[in-house]
């Protein structure tokens, strides 16, 4: 993923997209405008598990009930509460 093109908000959005889906990204680079040097950027992992990401995606879709969340994500109600607490603490 080359994040140097476009406007700054677009580049930052692409960068955060790479961080959110880090397992699908091989390399992130930035090319400087002045010297056209290629700078490799680290692929960060913020410790968000697939399950936590699924919970966040469901919340973004408007799901606010734990009963609906654990059914959609496919985990127990107790684990759903644990993930929500960990996400809140993050």
Quick recap:
The protein folds into 2 domains: 8-41, no CATH class; 50-89.
Radius of gyration, whole Å:
17 Å
Ends distance: 27 Å
Number of helices: 4
* Average predicted local confidence, pLDDT: 85
Which sequence of SSEs, written as H and E, runs from N to C?
HEEHHH
Helical amount among residues, as a percent range? Answer: 40-55%
**Largest sheet composition:** 2 strands, antiparallel
Instruction: Identify the overall geometry.
Output: elongated
In what range is the share of β-strand residues? 5-15%
What's the count of strands?
2
Strands across the major sheet, in which order? 1-2
Low-confidence parts lasting 5 or more residues at pLDDT below 50?
none
Number of domains: 2
Question: SS-based structural class?
Answer: mainly alpha
Question: Any overview of this molecule?
Answer:
- By secondary structure, this protein is mainly alpha-helical.
- Helix 2 crosses helix 3 and helix 3 packs across helix 4.
- A two-stranded antiparallel ribbon has the order 1-2.
- A hairpin with a 6-residue loop joins strand 1 and strand 2.
- 7% of the residues are buried.
- The chain contains 4 helices and 2 strands, in the order H-E-E-H-H-H.
- The mean pLDDT is 85.
- It has 2 domains: 34 residues, no CATH class; 40 residues.
């Amino acid at each position: 993923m080359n994040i140097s093109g476009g406007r700054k908000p677009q580049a930052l959005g692409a960068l955060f997209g790479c961080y959110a889906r880090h397992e699908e990204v091989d390399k992130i680079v930035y090319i400087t405008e002045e010297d056209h040097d290629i700078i490799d950027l680290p692929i960060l992992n913020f410790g968000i598990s697939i399950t936590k990401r699924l919970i966040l995606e469901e919340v973004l879709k408007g799901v606010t009930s734990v009963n609906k969340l654990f059914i959609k994500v496919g985990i127990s109600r107790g684990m759903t509460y644990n993930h929500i607490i960990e996400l809140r603490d993050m």
